[in-house]
Amino acid sequence: MLFIFFAILAVFTLLEGTVTTIPLVFISLLCSLIVIRKRGVFYTAFFAGLLLDLLTVRAIGSTFLFLLLFFYVMLLYRKKYEIVSFPFIIVSTFIGGYLYLLIFAGVGSMALSAICSIIAVVLFILLSLVNGAQKQSYLQENNI
Amino acid sequence: MQKKKNFFPTFLILLTLSILLIILSRAGYLNGLNSILERGTVPLQRLVFGVISGPQNLSDADRLRAENSKILSELMKQKELIRENQALRDQFRTANPSPQKLLPAHVVGQKIDQIIIDRGSDDGVEKGDIVVFKDNLVGKISKSSARISVVDLPVSQNIFLTAKVLNSSTQGAVKGGENGIILDNVVLSEKLEKGELVVTKGDVNEEGVGFPPDLIIGKIISVNKKASNLFQTAEVKSLLDFSKIEMVFVIIR
């Protein structure tokens, strides 16, 4: 699971740093945070953010600051809403993607934000499947 | 997250750390570290960009596939050298801008309205420097770190410059945006025609910052003239295909 997460994150970081304005790193970290539910995602976000800042000539730390604040606010809502759900993924990536583009690309784009939501849904399904399969195999191996 | 109650102190530490990094970065204290890290990231970025933009150059791939991999590799290297050499020769033959001020740079990344080049402040590139290819305007440096810089293309909404139509007295302002490059603020009495070339008027200040004159921005592809409007506008298309450009030249101050 972690290998897939890091592989996706590495590819997305390089793609975002080189050829696209779509916030792929934000999407992958958001989906991972919801599926994996570990604090380590924040530390990973720190390093991914630094690399992205280097590749895109942003002030070092600015991407991580955005990710940190957005994810923290998002997690505050987990008591009110079911965050492991498609509606939450769609809405949060749309709003987050729009804000991200507005801050870092200088212009908010509805179309790109919608693409963010679509990518997030696909990634969420993929990560959930891998995570589910891993849990299933763990239960079988331990005869639980 | 597993220990939900304990996350707030961690959040505060991470928040402070990121704000501290931003302040240090803005103040320029991290330039040395940037320079070291970019030694590793720039080649990686160039490699990724090469792999992604590679399929555009594969029109002869079928013919070349039969040859063995070693010869193919050598051939590709040679072709790249010839292309670079040709680009350099063409650029340095161009009278405008003056060749002494030009710094060749490779494109290592590309976004919708920006390109990333492998030259930065270590090479003398500064924010506001103009980027050209032959006598065509490629854009303006919007951000620069130690080893890489971001160039805003003419289609970027950050671009705004005075321009004129070649071989006429017609003047206007060129600006980028979602609709591409627009020549605006042209008085209705002036005549704009499809196919006419639009060039920079030149607005270099005493410090050498600004667009030099007579760089080709593009050609007019449509004119929007309404009697009810104060000004007429025209849509301009660059002569360059920015998605295929591999090498550019920065005009150093």
Description:
The complex is a heterodimer of chains A (144) and B (253). Chain A is an all-alpha fold. Helix content of chain A is 79%, strand content 0%. In chain A, helix 1 runs antiparallel to helix 2, helix 2 runs antiparallel to helix 3 and helix 2 packs antiparallel against helix 5. Chain A is globular and about 55 Å long. The two termini of chain A are 20 Å apart. The N and C termini of chain B lie far apart (52 Å). With 253 residues, chain B is of the alpha+beta class. The radius of gyration of chain B is 22 Å and the shape is globular. A six-stranded antiparallel β-barrel of chain B has the order 1-2-5-4-3-12. Chain B is built from four helices and twelve strands. The chains are: A mainly alpha (144), B alpha+beta (253). At the A-B interface, helix 1, helix 3 and helix 4 of A face helix 1, helix 2 and strand 1 of B.
Per-chain topology:
The complex is a heterodimer of chains A (144) and B (253).
Chain A: H1 2-18, H2 24-36, H3 40-56, H4 62-76, H5 86-105, H6 110-141
Helix pairs in contact in A: 1-2, 1-3, 2-3, 2-5, 2-6, 3-4, 4-5, 5-6
Chain B: H1 7-27, H2 31-53, H3 61-65, H4 69-93, E1 102-110, E2 114-117, E3 130-133, E4 136-144, E5 149-152, E6 160-165, E7 171-175, E8 181-187, E9 197-200, E10 216-224, E11 231-237, E12 247-251
Antiparallel strand pairs in B: 1-2, 1-12, 2-5, 3-4, 3-12, 4-5, 6-7, 6-9, 7-8, 8-11, 9-10, 10-11
